[in-house]
Structure formats: structure tokens, C-alpha cells
Amino acid sequence: MNESIEAIQSEALVQIMAARDERSLEDARVAVLGKKGSLTGIASGIKDVPQENKAAFGQLLNAARAAITAALEEKQVTLRDLTDRAALAGIDVTLPPRTVMAGALHPLTLIRDEAIGILRRMGFALADGPEIEDEFHCFDALNTPADHPARNEKDTFYFHSGKLLRTHTSSVQIRTMESQSPPVRIIAPGSAYRRDEIDATHLSVFNQLEGLYVDDDVSLPDLKGTLEYFLRELFGTATDVRFRPHFFPFTEPSFEIDVQLQIKGQSPRWIEVAGCGMVDPAVFEAICQSRKDRIFDPEKVTGFAFGMGLDRLAMIRWGIKDIRLLIENDARFLRQFS
Question: Is residue 216, in this structure, part of any structural domain at all?
């Protein structure tokens, strides 16, 4: 058997040296070391070797296996090196490299992250909620009557189940108050959906950032100071901010917020950027009924809420004339923000 092992080893080494590719090298390995290989077959006959010769036989067998394995690994390295050299043949390494285009954050992401950063520094925490909502969280709890235009199928995306795509992220405020106790200080960035005709200033899906602060003795000056600071951090410390009386079902009193922008070559002009107000007591009553407690008793707590369109903020910040540019993924437009 010793002669057989030596013969198998010699033949295997010859086949390994003669291999021209990895496939033929694998065939040589299987022929010797595979389940039905010649060396494997010899190894299975060790039971027939006399006891006094088994140690020497085993040593010879292990030495042959080690030599064959080493030859296989060395040949594999050689073949792969040859393959790599062939793949690189004909490549001119002196050619200048191709320009690698660097990616960048989308303008909506930039303005969202900046707005969130300002409000987080003021103590607001991030909150989230479902985009597919029910009428209670989207309308009823927000003191929106059944005949309000927003609840019409012409203005809102409804499902056959009666649920809808949320028309604002105010529903996150309701869900937060249902699950937390005062004080509550949250912001809710996210998508909202309305059946608007798509044009230069409207999309059927847009991005909002809404905020809510509820605690003991929250006042209108708190609301005014918060939003003035926020807008001046966003647009510059010299930005003029004004509050105009308005109506929203879920706040009372309510205001629209304008900022005065100075555009080079034009007269200063006021631009509407947000809506806000003190939380209507009817909203707190709806929360109390939903929670089945009086934690948000309007006689004990007050609060303010605000909301703004991130798309609009981006358009104002960078002078974007058409909101559709924000969703068209035109590289020529987006490259300006890289």
C-alpha cells in the first residue's frame, strides 16, 4: 500500500501542475481527495493494515494528503493571478479617471433637518403616526365639523374602508395626547395628502412639520416667542415676522404667520409661511373622552399648535419657482444643492 500512496501522490502532483484553469484543477482535486478519490479509497483500507504498521501507514497517508493540498492551493493562487492578468490586459492605466459624481441631500431633506434641529434645541421631541388615518384622529378630534370642505371626497383621498390618507400631520398631535400626559412638547414632520390640482405651487402629496406644546399656563406669548425665534433662526436674525388673525377649527385664537423677505432687485414683500394658534378647548375635550380621564382638562391645561409646509419653506429659502422641481429628480436642478 505504501507504493500505492506514493504513486497516487506523484500522479496527483503531475495533474495539478498540468491544470490550465480552475475547472481542471478542481477535477484533479476530486479525483484524488473527493469522496470517491483514489487517496480517499486508500485511506478507507486502513482497517486492513496490520496493527504494527498502522502508525507508519497513517503518517505516510497524512504526508501525501498534505503535499497534495499544498500543491492545490499554490496552483490555485497561480491560476487566479493569471486570470487577473488576462482581465487587465489591454487596459491603458495612463488614461485619466472618470469623474465620480458625488451625491447630496435633497433640498427637502436639508430644510427638514435644519427645522428639526432648531426645534429640538428648544426642547421639542420628534413624534410619528400612521399616514393612513381614521376620521376621528384626522377630523373629529380636531374639532372639524362633518360639513367641512376637507372632509369631502373631492378634497381628500378616502379608502373603501372609510379610512383616508391624512390631510395633515395634526393627527399625530391627537395620538400623542392619547398616549402621553402633560407636559407634551412634540414636532411631527411627515407627508400629507390632498386632492389638489398639481401646478407650480400645489402637489397632491406634500411635506409638513407640525408642533404641539401642552402644559400648565402655556400662553400666546409662548407661541409667539417660539415661532419668531424659529423663523429667525431659519431665515436670518433680521427677518421680520408678523401674525395675522385667521380661523382654524382646532385652534382659538388662530393666526397666519408671514415673514418679510428682501430679494435683490425687488421691494421687500411679505410671504405666508405657517399657521398657528392656541389649542381649542374642544380638542382637549375630545382627548379626554378618548382617554376616558381628565388629564387634558381644558380648565387645567393650555397649549399651542403650529404647522408649516416644508416644501414651501424650501421654495422660499432657495427661490424655487415651481414646486414640481422638488419631485421630478432632475439632476440638473438637484446638483445645485451638492
Answer: yes
Structure confidence by residue, pLDDT tens digits, 27-68: 888 888 887 778 777 777 666 667 776 677 677 778 888 888
Q: What pTM does this model have?
A: 0.69
Q: What is the CATH number of the domain that holds 133?
A: 3.30.930.10
Q: What is the mean pLDDT of residues 218-237?
A: 94
Q: How far apart are CA 193 and CA 161, in angstroms?
A: 17
Residue of 232, 230, 241, 306 lying closest to 275 (CA atoms): 306
Four-residue CA torsion sign, 63, 31, 8, 79:
negative
Tell me the residue type at 127: A
DSSP state letters, 225-290:
HHHHHHHHHHH-TT-EEEEEEEEETTEEEEEEEEEEE--TTS--EEEEEEEEEEEPHHHHHHHHHH
* CA separation for the pair 230, 124 (Å, rounded): 12
**Closest by Cα among 166, 137, 134, 114 to 313:** 114
Is residue 184 a contact partner of residue 213, using CB atoms and an 8 Å limit? Answer: yes
pLDDT at 27: 84
The reply to whether 279 falls in a domain is: yes
Of 266, 185, 270, 187, the residue nearest 235 (C-alpha): 270
> What domain range is 159 assigned to?
107-337
Structural contact between residues 286 and 186, judged by C-beta atoms closer than 8 angstroms: no
Same domain, 158 and 9: no
